[in-house]
Amino acid sequence: MTSNTLSFQDLNLPAALLQALEKVGYETPSPIQAESIPLLLDGHDLLGQAQTGTGKTAAFALPFLSKIDPKANHVQLLILAPTRELAIQVAEACHTYAAFDKGIRVLPIYGGQSYSHQIKTLKKGVQVVVGTPGRVIDHIKRGTLKLNQVSSLVLDEADEMLRMGFIDDVEWILSHAPEERQTALFSATMPEQIRRIIHRYLKEPKTVKIAAKVSTATTIRQRFCQVAPRHKMEALTRILEVEDFDGVIIFVRTKTATVELAEKLAARGYDAEALNGDIPQNARERVVDRLKKGQVDILVATDVVARGLDVERISHVINFDIPYDTESYVHRIGRTGRAGREGDAILLMSHREKRLLRAIEKATKQAIEPMTLPSVTELNEQRVKRFKDKVLATLEDDRLEAILPVIEALKEETEAEPEVLMAALAQMAAGKEPLVLSEKDVADINDRSSDREGRAGARDQGDRKPKRRNAAPPEEGMQRYRIEVGHSHGAKPGNIVGAIANEADIDSQYIGAIQINDTYSTVDLPAGMPPEVKAILSKARVAGQKLAIREWTDKPPKHNVKGKDKGKRPPRSRSKAK
């Protein structure tokens, strides 16, 4: 059977996990899930070569969670991730999958979060730890995280950990984990250092390589809108108000969401229907037929039921929920722009989902342009246009003759000007929803938690270019700092951004201009850095070097920090894979 015909029930997963998957609406496994889950359930080490956004989190989380003993109050599964954002996402996914097995506890540990909370939770006992390499090492050295009973270990996005300068930390952690364990490593690329880790620390691994189908039609205009999750319904409504659409498919992740969203849209006056796997086939066919005939304008659907759907009048595809894998995104937006026709694809996403956006752009080799939610002026223009069109159409109605005496009577009784009477009738027709909105009627729901990345099309941090400032001072509210890592150490802007963001919990939008020199670099950060944050950053590493951060001056440092720090890095293991 192919992954398209397999179900999760075919993969021999425990009932509790299947129940969780049913609740979140997962219908069929992705290719990497279909291939990886049986191998991991059988106890093999695994090498997974796949891009972000192929569904790999579930590919390793589901089989390893199935092996957890909830009654054993110690860490059994350790997952290493390169960034705090990914660690949080993976931990949340594990928590969701384990929702029906109340004994399984999951803890994310990463820089920037309080040690006290992490230590307190570790002392209580957790079975699953998801962490960034630096913070995991800190806890191992403190004795608050013990790996002696870890039976499963995952390296997620290993090449990204290499790029961010964490690979020595990863090897140190691997050398301190039990030799008798099951290991899975996932990486989009296989540079030599990753191959070395595979050779030394994985035992006869099985290989799963997924080549995503990522071609998208050039006739499709792709846009994304960054919006907080709680505002997505409002954002969708505004987009539908101003977009000139014919037929629309709105994609959500779960079957329950199709019904809920279709009902909300219907309540707002749209002809919307739900389409999901729980609806009988003959009923689904009737819904699609109504869409073709123009009796329904909007379908709210899950991935599976919409695959292969070809309706000529579909002008827009809206991803209300961003898909977890790039192949699903390609299939979704492929419902429009078919046979050379033009189409529009709009993606709603939160700041925390920017990794998935980057993965889609990287896999499809196409930039998805940012869009701003419609303004009050744009909304009003569309509302007035629709109102005028309705009035002009009604003027052709022969039944107006019967109403004219009523209007004449109103004029005589009220002595109102005709324009005032028309305004009153227009207001009455509009009902509770005003025809013309004011600024106070429309909340600002644009998610600006990462405006810089939004304007840049959510570029990868690793592609971020340093700003050349020379004598230009920092922007207002920023302070310049010197860090003891530069070109000679192999430092890149992405390394620096990643280290600061992860260890100091500083969002990348607040990391200013970066200038990389030969032996040191400068970075602009928000003024007034607390001493405890500065202490954390001083110990953080980029390309194997401690940042040793300090306020920028034109004076050279008193000590050779590189030499001073030499030898203090956790030693690499010299042991060979067993």
TrEMBL record:
Residue span(s) of domain Helicase ATP-binding: 37-208
Biased composition (Basic and acidic residues): 440-464, 548-557
GO terms classed as biological process: cellular response to cold; ribosomal large subunit assembly; RNA catabolic process
SMART domains: DEXDc, HELICc
Motif (Q motif): 6-34
PANTHER family assigned to the protein according to its UniProt record, in alphabetical order: ATP-DEPENDENT RNA HELICASE DEAD (PTHR47963:SF8), DEAD-BOX ATP-DEPENDENT RNA HELICASE 47, MITOCHONDRIAL (PTHR47963)
Stated name of the protein: ATP-dependent RNA helicase DeaD
Species, as recorded: Saliniradius amylolyticus
